[in-house]
Known about the structure:
The protein is 34% helix and 26% strand. The chain has twelve helices and 15 strands. A hairpin with a 5-residue loop joins strand 1 and strand 2. It is globular. The relative contact order is 0.15.
Amino acid sequence: MKAVILNKNGTLEDGLAEQPKPKNNEVLIQIKASGFNPIDYQMLENELERKLISSPILGRELSGIVVDKGSKVTEFNIGDEVYSGSGSMGSNGTYAEYIAVPEAIVSFKPKNISFEQAAAIPSAGLTSLQIFNRLKLNPENTILVTGAAGGVGSFVIKLLLAHNIRQITATVGSEENREILLKLGLKDHQIINYKEENLIENIVKANNNQPFEYGIDLVGNTMSELTAEALKINGMYVDVTALVTKDAHETLFNKGTLIMNISNYTYGVVKKYEYYKNSLLTIKTLIENGTILPPQYKIVGNLSLDTVLQAHSILKNNQTQGHKLIMKH
């Protein structure tokens, strides 16, 4: 099968790989579309992320059609349209024509959306749903979301608004991203451009001059310091990036803040596969009944090295403009 492969020199190249055969509990999926995530290029550059590489074929979310299955698979039949966040639990990554994954991490695709839209969901959707479920918020809570127009951010905003949680202040870095959040249902005064002067004052002012109970930080680094500063004493900081600075940690400690770490990876390590399936089924229902809309996406190209390198570059330079990057297969 065609694939984009990480070679021994640590660079990517177009290549061919053996088509995987499904084990007893696995389905073989012909990939129709796959999504790109920052972790894809971070694995090539970052020592911590490099440890997560389990196959020379990268990529971790997909939609497609079941074309073969193991003898113990009961839920899926050949021809079923599915989607999945494979992480490192498949035979290979998603920069390929086929992948074999445990049926326990696969869900039927939402019926009312395309393969491209479905491939845009798993990583951001699982992360967002985990944040939402673990926070157990109510409409009185005040929430700051940094990097709100990105994949996870826009999904979180959709979930919050769908559950009538509206005391949200969100940061963006451009007017295009402001427009994205306005379309999702936030009001103009709830959206703060982080490039403005007096940023911390503007953020707190947007919350009736009060510090926030919850900070969902999707950016890290200097934004982690800003989020820490904007939180009230004994508030909660939600860490999605593991990019909290030393100064932010000090502020969070001094304020007695609870820190909630968000990780989808951990469920695969302990083989709690039902987490993946159940989360994807929940999102499927929310999309099919119109509670939330699928993500905005942009097709970068077909399965090739060029497409992968282009997508990695757009991600690295933060030029997605609120769109999930997709590769067609």
